[in-house]
Amino acid sequence: CLGYKPGEKKSAQEYAQLDANDESLNRWKASLGLNAVGEGGSGPKVTVLSLFLVSPSLPAGKKISININDEAALSDLKKNPIHIKEGVEYNVGITFKVNHSIISGVRYIHVVKRAGVKVDKAEQMLGSYGPSPSGEPYTKNFEPEESPSGLLARSGSYTVKSRVIDDDGEIYAEWEWTFKLTKEW
């Protein structure tokens, strides 16, 4: 909005201490996880735990998940791509944990390239979150997509550069993975 000037940034700890005598407001803050905020607020604001793909066409019991914090697994994905069935509907999702701050305007962005040429870019809003009162991670499923199909789509692999970023440009996670289209999961 033209002329809008954001207020001074406060830590989650500062928000938790505002209006400390207001019982109703304290219950609301607790529901946001503000009372669960650790002292000092050190370390990353957000820890992205995994990226996953779900599809109604996946065989029962099959799960496609990438542990973002496992460097060896990420490195292996470059050599051994994930297999995605061509022409099926699937959803991408991520699991993440908010550690000690309120985050806002957080987005997941990925750019898909094939043979170095950009073929797709997706940007999905995660939203705004505080630390979970129970300490449990958040899970966000994105809008369904349809995988490409046809002989041309199946030849070669696709490289995806993924990133979780906020409106201020702070990058919480960045990783690369590869997939290949096949006739079967």
What is this entry, summarized?
It contains 4 helices and 10 strands.
In terms of topology, how is this protein built?
Layout: H1 12-17, H2 23-32, E1 46-54, E2 64-67, H3 71-79, E3 82-85, E4 89-98, E5 103-114, E6 117-129, E7 138-141, E8 145-146, H4 151-154, E9 157-165, E10 171-182
Parallel strand pairs: 3-10
Antiparallel strand pairs: 1-2, 1-4, 4-7, 4-8, 5-6, 5-9, 9-10
GO molecular function: GTPase activator activity; Rho GDP-dissociation inhibitor activity
Subcellular location: Cytoplasm
Main location: cytoplasm
User: What portion of residues is helical?
Assistant: 10-25%
User: What does the average pLDDT come to?
Assistant: 86
Number of extended strands: 10
CATH topological fold name: Coagulation Factor XIII, Chain A, domain 1
Kindly provide the radius of gyration, computed on alpha-carbon positions and rounded to a whole number of angstroms. Answer: 20 Å
Class based on secondary structure composition and strand pairing: alpha+beta
| Quaternary structure of the protein | single chain
CATH class: Mainly Beta
Order of helices and strands: HHEEHEEEEEEHEE
Number of separate domains: 1
Largest sheet: 5 strands, antiparallel
CATH homologous superfamily placement:
Coagulation Factor XIII, subunit A, domain 1
Strand content: 35-45%
The poorly predicted ranges are none
Query: Under the CATH scheme, which architecture would be assigned?
Result: Distorted Sandwich
* Coarse morphology: elongated
Alpha carbon gap, first and last residue: 47 Å
